[in-house]
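Milestone 3.1: sequence recovery, worked example.
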């Protein structure tokens, strides 16, 4: 038991370090993209399946409510939460359309679509990226393995170099927290007057 615990911690640490070496510059690009989008009054959409759906909801909540700072809410939406939409689209059309139809309804040019897929091959996430491109949304992929098809069609890709779904999800969670923290810093520490946010907690 102890050996398994130590092995899993070691794996997680090693993958995080490797991800950082390979993706630091891209991670900073995503931060700037999101911060600029919020400055321009645009929205960020998060979506994925299973554990990635949970991540989508988690990240959206951090932006709408807060992460660390007390500051105004930011317009982030998880496309994984409305069971009536998800089930009606799946029943009447296809599960592949559950995120795409929501982007068609809610997305506007300049918004940002962040698709989360550990494999990079989830059909409904790929379909959503197709629609996002048609509408004029910027796309960001959070993936694993070699990035799959999703990384090839995204504007920016953050690829966790692992084939282990649990390890990939652990890094995705860290990525989401870093995005929240740095976007907050960019908007409210560097430019507190932008949103009138003068009172916050460091």
């Amino acid at each position: 038991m102890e050996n398994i615990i130590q092995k899993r911690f070691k794996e997680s640490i090693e993958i995080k370090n490797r991800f950082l070496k390979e993706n630091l510059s891209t991670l900073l690009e995503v931060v700037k993209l999101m911060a600029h989008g919020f400055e321009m009054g645009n929205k960020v959409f998060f979506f994925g399946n299973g554990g990635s759906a949970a991540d989508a909801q988690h990240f959206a909540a951090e932006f709408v409510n807060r992460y660390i700072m007390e500051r105004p809410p930011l317009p982030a939406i998880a496309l994984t939460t409305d069971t009536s939409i998800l089930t009606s689209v799946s029943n009447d059309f296809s599960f592949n359309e559950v995120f795409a139809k929501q982007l068609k309804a809610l997305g506007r040019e300049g918004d940002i679509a962040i698709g989360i897929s550990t494999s990079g091959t989830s059909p409904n996430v790929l379909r959503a990226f197709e629609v996002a491109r048609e509408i004029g949304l910027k796309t960001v992929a959070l993936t694993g393995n070699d990035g799959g098809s999703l990384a090839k069609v995204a504007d920016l890709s953050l690829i966790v170099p692992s084939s282990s779904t649990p390890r990939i999800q652990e890094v995705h969670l860290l990525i989401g927290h870093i995005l929240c923290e740095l976007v907050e810093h960019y908007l409210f520490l560097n430019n507190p007057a932008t949103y009138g946010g003068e009172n916050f907690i460091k």
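The chain has a mean pLDDT of 94. Helices lie at 2-39, 51-64, 83-92, 100-106, 123-135, 148-153, 165-189.
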